[in-house]
Amino acid sequence: MKNYWRTFFGFSDNGVDETFAQAMERAKHLLKIHNYEDACRVLKYAEKYGDAEGIYQYGWCCWRGTGVVEDAVKAVKLWQKAAAMGYQPAIERCEAIKDFIATIQ
User: Fold this and answer.
1) Distance of alpha carbon 77 from its chain centroid, rounded?
2) In contact, 19 and 3? CB cutoff 8 Å
3) What is the CB neighbour count within 10 angstroms for residue 55?
4) pLDDT single digits (tens) 12-43
5) Which residues contact 56 (CB under 8 A, 6 or more apart)?
6) Model pLDDT for residues 58-74, shown as the tens digit of each residue
7) Bigger pLDDT: 94 or 2?
8) Which of 33, 39, 50, 85 could crosslink 27 through cysteines, CB 3.0-4.6 Å?
9) What does the alpha-carbon distance between residue 81 and residue 95 come to, in Å, rounded to a whole number?
10) What pLDDT, on a 0 to 100 scale, did the predictor assign at position 104?
11) Alpha helices of 1-105 — where are they, by DSSP H?
């Protein structure tokens, strides 16, 4: 079955057949070139697609306010979700900010 998830938002650089995995690769590139708004358009769907790395990256965007409104609480929740999925960088981030996490729970 073809995945048309991106065409709904009116941007399909790689064609209507682009999968979420392909879009995630593009989002990583967009982050590298500091195009945060376009990257976040993809990353915000990482949770729905169960992509721990994407959830973690979207958390960083929320934490810094790059491409989305700054929201530290949302960032922490995203990192915790990615950590629960076993994503090592998220586990390390949650450990590094455990004192902050305690203040928001």
Assistant:
1) 12
2) yes
3) 27
4) 555 667 788 888 999 999 999 999 999 999 99
5) 78, 79, 82, 87, 89, 90, 93
6) 999 999 999 999 999 99
7) 94
8) 39
9) 13
10) 84
11) 20-32, 36-43, 46-49, 52-64, 72-84, 88-96, 98-104
